[in-house]
Fold this sequence. Notes:
Blueprint: H1 2-26, E1 30-38, E2 44-51, E3 62-68, E4 72-73, E5 86-93, E6 96-105, E7 108-117, H2 119-127, H3 135-143, H4 148-156, H5 166-172, H6 177-185, H7 193-201, H8 206-214, H9 221-229, H10 234-242, H11 250-258
Antiparallel strand pairs: 1-2, 1-7, 2-3, 4-5, 5-6, 6-7
Amino acid sequence: MTNTFGVILSALLAAYTGLFLQAEEHLRTLTGSCSVAATSNEAEVDLRLERSGCGGKENCGSTQTQEPLSAFLGFTLADLRREGAHVDAVLRAEAGTITCSGGVHDGRLNGDFRFVPDAVFFDRMLQMGYHDLDEEKLQAYTLFRIGIAWIHSLEAAGVSGLDSGNLIALRIFQADTDYIRSLNAVGYPTPDAGKLIALRVQHVDPDEVKQIRAMGYQPTLDELIQMRIFKVTPDFIRRMQAKGLNDLTISKLVQIRIFKLAED
């Protein structure tokens, strides 16, 4: 019995050590050049990051985003008007901290950036089952403010198929619990992560779905995606009905669009 316990304990320690070494391997500091500039929206700035030392690695290179000014610590638009000043623009989130340090010239901060991943966040993600995180993903999590509570909210809503990569797409396209509830409200079960992203990418609007259902159609989520791709809108359906085509299926409506059988 004692030997068996010892074997189990050794296996658990080995697994834990493996995870620890994985964390150590992935928690590298990213560096490169950066710039910060004002935009037409005074509440946002343009942030550009150019990675160094990529060595041809996938998902490595240039990043450009519009970041809310409120996301930065110790940095204001007034800093961009201080010609020649040295400025540190610090963007901190659960997944890590990005610091762009440099000088201001012609209203733009140009310098070097460092991204330092957060070890506590990384460990919590491992515990939640997200084992394929790397520093590039953690940097994206920082830029898009992907946090534990938001991930938990998706899991609690019943979204299946979540992984460290599609969490980024879900965040970018705002496929959140509010959108899920709006789909549930018009009779659809919670989609998996891939379909949820596809619905958002194609701008499937629950209010438009209500109009389509009011016309007697009961489209599936896949059909809703297809209808958006080929612009089978409520207005298009009404135009077909005005021509006396009242019994067209969704498939037929899509075919009319594909083969351009109707004049716009």
